[in-house]
Amino acid sequence: xxxxxxxxxxxxxxxxxxxxxxxxxxxxxxxxxxxxxxxxxxxxxxxxxxxxxxxxxxxxxxxxxxxxxxxxxxxxxxxxxxxxxxxxxxxxxxxxxxxxxxxxxxxxxxxxxxxxxxxxxxxxxxxxxxxxxxxxxxxxxxxxxxxxxxxxxxxxxxxxxxxxxxxxxxxxxxxxxxxxxxxxxxxxxxxxxxxxxxxxxxxxxxxxxxxxxxxxxxxxxxxxxxxxxxxxxxxxxxxxxxxxxxxxxxxxxxxxxxxxxxxxxxxxxxxxxxxxxxxxxxxxxxxxxxxxxxxxxxxxxxxxxxxxxxxxxxxxxxxxxxxxxxxxxxxxxxxxxxxxxxxxxxxxxxxxxxxxxxxxxxxxxxxxxxxxxxxxxxxxxxxxxxxxxxxxxxxxxxxxxxxxxxxxxxxxxxxxxxxxxxxxxxxxxxxxxxxxxxxxxxxxxxxxxxxxxxxxxxxxxxxxxxxx
Length: 468
Fold this sequence. Notes:
single chain; alpha+beta; 11-stranded mixed sheet; 10 helices
């Protein structure tokens, strides 16, 4: 009798302490990526245990064995819809409710991505009041950091309501709202952003260990009262825990914190994109915002980062760049018009990922230049329907001769080209456009999207403190 009681107590104790648990990103109210295979994963106190996961959209159970306490199951998702239920069964059962199938995007970067309606945007109260759409779901990764890779993060999926939208990334919300309005499918948004962070903190530090282009900026890292600037710290705590949750793509708004190392930024941003794609296991689209004009104390720091972002866009496949020179504020590093930023990011996704053919998604981008007599003729991509100016005269063009001294230039639109000249220069050598931190030029394509800054020379520009 005593032995039987002892065995019973051992059995009850084992079951009392036995548990199955999930990462926070897999929870009630989540959105799963449609028409694909998604990963549902978690942990168990049992070393080896069969785990069965079933989605109510097809009621097909999928079973995999946990190994050393971790388990992972692949589910096939249907076309967009819901709400559905997902059940996880082992020695105990977990039920996830109000699950939608749709499009999932991750948003990251520094303060302009973090910036919320409650902190100040155009028409903030109206936007907050209208943000009542349960088919848009929000997952906020809290700001935290770690020197080592973490398996989980605090956070939970919520329906988009005024009370949840107001402190969420405004850019990400407006991006998601535009997708939802056009696609008519549920949208899931994961926001992992933190003001003041350099790009290096957002990718796996091990990724750059053998890359000489990424070692040099280390000496410029500084600590501040908000967070570490060490490579990988935010990746470890805020990105790694949501991998391998299936995403359609990423949007990114960052660069201001890297402005003192502009020449290293193309390698850094490209490494981040490459690392994220490797970690998730597929080449998802990566769309980013070129930083807005602002009166930095360092001369040319802002425009050199914009040039670095343009370089990344041109060289890294499946990326897109949004120019915001017409909707910035040179006296406010956090421009209040987040609506158009989100909409322009969404235009890239709608055109490139979702096949909408009637959407303009990029402003003019420098293609090449040729000299014709004493004039330079600049050609542009993303201007097939022609160029236009807003104002009487084209602004922010400069030209130089063999002395390499740039002077303000006159410019005239001819179809999808711009002819540039200065009567004082007889043998023009190079052209620059919107080449300063606070440039707000007036060259657009016919869709009303602004042209990116560019220069046709390759001379090194040294950063200097702005004396003006």
